[in-house]
Amino acid sequence: MKKIFKYLLLALIALNISACESFIDDMEVDPNNPGDATAARMIEGVMVADMFVHTGDLNRLAGMWMGYFTGADRQYLTLDTWGGSVAADYNNTWGNIYTGVVAQARIVQEKASTENNLRLRGVAKILEAHALGTTAQLWGDVPNTEANNIDEFPNPAYESQASVYASLQTLLNSALADLAGVGSIPNDIFYGGSVANWSAFAHSLKARYFVHTGDFANAETEAALGITTLSEELWAPFGSTFGATFNPYYDFMVYNRPGYMGADGAYAAELLDPYDLSGSGRSRSNPKTNEEARFNWNYLPYYEIYAAGYEPNYLNDFDWAEPNGKFGLEFPLYTAGESLLIIAEARIRANDVAGAIAAYNNYRTYLENGGGGFHDIASAYDYAFQYDPYVLADFQAGGMVNHGQASVAEAILFEIMEERYVSMVGELEAFSDWRRSDNLIGVPVKFGTSIPERFLYPQVEINTNPNVPSPLPDFSTPTPVNQ
Q1: Global confidence as pTM
Q2: Pairing of strands 158-159, 331-334
Q3: What is the pLDDT of residue 3?
Q4: Where residue 308 falls among pLDDT bands split at 50, 70, 90?
Q5: For residues 231 and 236, what is the distance between their CA atoms, to the nearest angstrom?
Q6: Which domain, by its residues, includes 230?
Q7: Distance from C-alpha of 256 to C-alpha of 274, rounded to nearest angstrom
């Protein structure tokens, strides 16, 4: 009998141990910190990271330097010029580029290949190209093929700016081939799974990068294949949740750092201001151009706010019951206007005066017919806008858009570059224009005697990667494609 009880006891103990093991099985797995995910689950995170790369800290820095904004309080008084910026200012965005976008986009590509979802793989390639193209534009030589492979390359090599651009053209060609294949684009917060729109964006990035490298013939070809209509435009879809989905500009100016950055005396505001509130006399409005609506979409002309003459327009429909200003909700990542202006610039650089004027007038028609972002605010407040077509005489000596240029071609190029400047307020692509054109339009220099030619390599790279370029280039060192 004792033996029977002994065996029963052992059996019950074994059963309880087994039951407990079953009960705690997988308890070490934290559902809020998954160790892996499918490509479809990951792609949205890559898109979000890419949005923040192109709308965050670096936009504000470059925007202050090139006359879009002004530093108004605390450290932003120092950061208002590049003379007050140090290497550590670039740590966060550099990390987001390489860990949030590039590394994750490459993982998505591997997973999508395994799942035979070629279209999703193509989208991941486009996102990688978007982030790395911006990186090459801002810093010059940067890590590329060895990046984010810490086991093989703990200190990734820096590749030449030209070779990075060449590799991105190849990557985008590969992405276009993938988009023509099988699969779907799930969890697509940019384009809702539209293969056609993603293909247009890929062509547009190719055009943008050909502009960066001075290949205007190919830039025009790709721009014509890219985003040329309102329905194809890419706007970062920010939302209304604090600490989660806010536009970084709105988050910074309204919730986290109100008063730090304004636009008092900002050159772009004075160019757009049809009322000439600052008395600068710089307004670019003329008998064929009325910038009232676009000015009010970009800026708040309230002299009483923070004792400033202008503020970036951060109003929005969810928090202020106002039409969205440029810095309140969605934010442009690539518009049809950019493609149309690339075509116009390419033609004038090829000395095609008639073709350039026609292309530029196509762009002005785009502004009249819904482009430029300002039409909702124009409708709500009855703000005027006017973009009548220009003719040859307007660019000749004494014409309304000849500002002392010696030739018609120079006047046309000046007008196109100034238009790119005022159409890209707060966007990083404008920083490329400023440097590649050697400040053709004459934005006032805020510090020293010349404009900044690049961003500084981040302090985290200087401290940890022996392959960082040496000697370290400073703000005055042009990137290779701009030398």
Answers
A1: 0.92
A2: unpaired
A3: 41
A4: low
A5: 14
A6: 39-241+331-482
A7: 31
